[in-house]
Amino acid sequence: MLTRAYQHSLNGSHLPDGEPLLEVDHVSLRFGGVKALTDISFTVTQGHVHAIIGPNGAGKSSMLNCISGIYHPQEGSIRLQTAAADGTRTVSTLTKLPPHRIARLRVARSFQNIELFSHLTVLENLMLGRHIHMKHNVAASMLWFGPARRQEIAHRHLVEEVIDLLQLQAFRNKPVGSLAYGIQKRVELGRALCIQPALLLLDEPMAGMNAEEKEDMARYILDVHELAGVTVVLIEHDMNVVMDISDRVSVLDFGRLIADGTPDEVKADPAVVEAYLGSDTEDAAVKEALATLQEDA
Amino acid sequence: MSNVTATGIYHRTYASELRLRSTRAEYVRLGLMVVLLLVLPFVLDNYWLSIVNTILIAVIGAVGLNILVGYTGQISLGQGGFMAVGAYSSAILAERMGMPVPVAIVLAVLLTAAIGTFFGLPGLRLKGLYLAIATLASQQIIEFVIRRWGWLTEDRGYITLDRLSIFGWTLPRESFEQSWYWILMLLALLAVLAARNLFRTGLGRSFMAVRDQDIAAEAIGVNLTTAKLTAFAVSSGFVGLAGALTAHYTETVTWEAFTLNVSITYLAMIIVGGLGSIAGAVYGAIFMSLLPVLIRTVADVVGPAAPWLSNQLPAIQNAVFGLVIILFLIIEPRGLNRLWERMKEYVRYWPFRY
Predict the structure, then answer these.
(1) Residue B331 maps to which CATH number?
(2) At A293, is the pLDDT very low, low, confident or very high (cuts 50, 70, 90)?
(3) Residues of chain B contacting A175 with CB distance shorter than 8 Å
(4) Does some domain include residue B12?
(5) What mean pLDDT value characterizes chain B?
(6) Are A144 and B219 inside 8 Å of each other by CB?
(7) Residue A74 forms contact with B (CB below 8 Å)
(8) Is it the case that residue A1 has pLDDT exceeding 50?
(9) Considering CB atoms only, which of B197, B224, B234 is closest to A143?
């Protein structure tokens, strides 16, 4: 949606809502003998907030790293469907591409442990989000006057819209290393948005935040999703947030996909309940162990 | 790039915010600098002018090294070798092939950039200390080649050059240092300006992104291979220019002028001046070039009273060099540039602390 205040669309995908945007197809990832992911398949639909949840070590971040090209799975493929402005479709296989090529396909991401350019200002970090949209020429850069300066000013307009959307005005010229944790998380979201992503991957955007900061962050993500129409893949541990804002949830446990559906379906799935709360049999064993301990004492 | 903006400055356009200077004080300071640079050759004698000229060459080299080490985070010990490439190629092209000196220098710069890019290839796989060792190898290889490859010097071990002449105009002997001052000052100014511009555009920012977080840089679409190799090329280009100018200014080229010591001295310049800042590279080049001169001057003054001092001069120089670097690392790791910024901030906030 374009308003007077926001003249650029932050959504980089021209697919109509409801079409499959990203297909994860039987992906397996191993590190030596450790199976991080086993035979994972799911589809991310254009226009959805798609959450990936699971206990610690379930393989959520590995899944995201596979999509953004930091890991290359041994088996299976990950395909991204893109549409040009005139409607022609292209399907690109992400599995073999290096991360910077995947970024050029407008797949943007944030990291679990903030990975900002800490010596640079918020503005410079966000301008770096425009990297794939800019031309880089040594001679023109050194000359400054001419194309380089024009380009800097042109891209500044979109960056300022992102600053407005995420309310980062007060921090524009501060080095990000000096900012509070919650703000840094927001800057990281902003940097990803500056790519004008077709697909936005967020790795625990609310980790380590208090309830109020979480609400703010959830609101920003919803703004990005609802105002700009960006498709979001989200990893999050807070179940309230996940169930509130996502359209679809995939649940991983020990590198396997144990459930995939709407939040309500997933909530009712016995396999999910077992993964999160432990099974009755385990429970019984724990009680037994406790009982013996008490007897010993 | 101070993070504090003075109050009362409101930019109305992005263009005005992107300017390098926005307050009147900054323009006044620029004016004073210009006046100083214009007056310098008329007030200094030839001895001091020759020192200023070597400083100007060092400025170009230090700015080049800072692009690679300070801004892109690729530690390089190959500075001396790359300067040698610039010096030898420019000298051979001008003297033996008979090319006009400006053409020879431009070609030398391009050749050094190419060779720098080649020796930057290990940087694609190595980081930090490991890369330092790889560039040390490049220094040793180049040093070996210029010492042993007889063709370079026609088996004499050195190359002598004629007094600089540019398209038929030969530098007059009586105003040798002055004429060189104008040439070097102009080139150093252009080099500083070009580097400053580089880092307010996307290309320079991508270098800094590689330095700060290479995985995140890749995830936003920076091609690490291209970024690192471009940084090596640009940096070596500057360094090659410094080398070529050394050759034409000193009118001799020998391998002794481009040893590992040179690499270390240049690293010291950018550490003392401030890593990742163009102004820092300039301050560092000035400081590290003046330091031995000052020590010598002091020794000359105290010399008659304490003859043991002048006997031990080289040892004292080394010790002071080391001491200065250690002191900077402890007191202000971000170098002279940060020191200067802190002084400016102190004055700006006075009488308040912050």
Answers:
(1) 1.10.3470
(2) low
(3) 3
(4) no
(5) 91
(6) no
(7) no
(8) no
(9) B197
Domains of chain A (ranges, CATH numbers): 1-106+196-297 (3.40.50.300), 119-191 (no CATH)
Would you call B212 an interface residue with chain A, using a CB distance cutoff of 8 Å?
A: yes
Residue A5 has pLDDT above 70, yes or no: no
Q: Which residue has the tokens 């994860």?
A: A24
B40 touches chain A (CB under 8 A): no
- Give the gap in angstroms from C-alpha B13 to the nearest C-alpha of chain A: 9
Contact assignment for A141 to B204 by CB distance below 8 Å:
yes
Shortest Cα distance, chain B CAs vs residue A194, angstroms: 9
Pairwise CB contact (< 8 Å): A115 & B213: yes
Please check the confidence at residue A8 and state whether its pLDDT lies above 90.
no
Contact A124, A117 (CB under 8 A): yes
The predicted structure's pLDDT at residue A123: 96
pLDDT in tens, B86-100: 999 999 999 999 899
Is the pLDDT assigned to residue A119 strictly greater than 50? yes
Chain A positions touching B211 (Cβ under 8 A) are 119
Do the domain assignments include residue B147? yes
> Cβ contacts (< 8 Å) between A98 and chain B: which residues?
218
Give the whole-angstrom CA distance, residue A202 versus residue A234: 5
Query: B194 lies in which domain range?
Result: 42-349
- Nearest CA to B185 among B280, B33, B32, B56? B56
Q: Do B194 and A142 make contact, defined as CB atoms within 8 angstroms? A: yes
Residue A71, chain B, CB below 8 Å: the answer is no
- Please report residues of B whose CB lies closer than 8 A to that of A115: 213, 215-216, 219
pLDDT digits (tens, 9 = 90+) for B282-336: 999 999 999 989 888 888 888 777 777 777 888 888 888 888 888 888 888 889 9
pLDDT at B3 over 50: no
* Alpha carbons A51 and A69: distance in angstroms, whole number: 19
Question: Is B26 inside any structural domain?
Answer: no
Cα A58 to Cα A260: distance, rounded to the nearest angstrom? 15
Structure confidence by residue, pLDDT tens digits, B91-143: 999 999 989 999 999 999 999 999 999 999 998 989 889 999 999 999 999 99
Residue B216, in any domain of the structure: yes
Residue B211: C-alpha distances to residues A98, B71, B128, B174, B217 (Å): 19, 7, 10, 48, 9
Domain count for chain B: 1
Cβ contacts of A108 on chain B, cutoff 8 Å = 219-220
Chain A stretch 178-237, residues whose beta carbon is closer than 8 A to a beta carbon of chain B: 191-192, 195
If we measure between CA atoms, which residue out of B142, B141, B119 comes closest to residue B131?
B119
pTM (two decimals): 0.91
Phi and psi at A39, nearest 5°, equal 50, 55
> CB-CB: which of A99, A143, A148 is closest to B218?
A99
- pLDDT (average), residues A23-27: 95
